[in-house]
Amino acid sequence: MRINLAIFLLLFASNAALAESWGPDAIKFNLEDSSKIQTMLWVSGYSYSSTAIYRRLGCLKKDQNIGSKYLVEKLNSKYSGIKITSEEASKTLDLEISNGYPCGPPYNKKMFPAPKDARQI
């Protein structure tokens, strides 16, 4: 019984630590004049739309996504302590997503076969 209780407490403590590591306090940059909650919503929308686009292009499987946490980590690494615009954030995230989730030139060839010669372009 004591072992079960110890395991439960250990799992509960580790889950609480993980939950604290992701949230508004994880954001280390300032997006325009937004609050951290507003910034999380912006990043979440960027994550959702990027995932949808990459799935439509065949660059992500249906069970894959471009997570908000990944995007926040990329922005934190470049802009920690700095106020940035949404345009700057978008340019950075576009580059990071392109590097982190390569799609091939310029997209999935199975879904969009390349023309047989340059005259078809």
Structure description:
This protein has 121 residues and is mainly alpha-helical. It has one domain (26-110). It is 56% helix and 3% strand. It is built from 4 helices and 2 strands, in the order αβααβα. It has helices spanning 2-21, 36-56, 68-79, 86-100; strands at 30-31, 83-84. A two-stranded parallel ribbon has the order 1-2. It is globular. The model is unreliable at 12-19 (pLDDT under 50).
Please give a quick description of this structure:
With 121 residues, the chain is mostly helical. It is built from 4 helices and 2 strands. The chain has one domain (26-110).
Largest β-sheet summary: 2 strands, parallel
Helix content: 55-70%
Mean pLDDT: 80
The spatial strand order of the largest sheet comes to: 1-2
* Helix and strand pattern: HEHHEH
Beta strand %? under 5%
Q: Regions with pLDDT < 50 over 5+ consecutive residues?
A: 12-19
Structural class estimated from helices and strands: mainly alpha
Number of helices: 4
Q: N- to C-terminal separation?
A: 71 Å
Return Rg in Å: 20 Å
What's the total count of β strands?
Answer: 2
Estimate nothing, just give the exact number of structural domains. 1
The dominant shape is globular
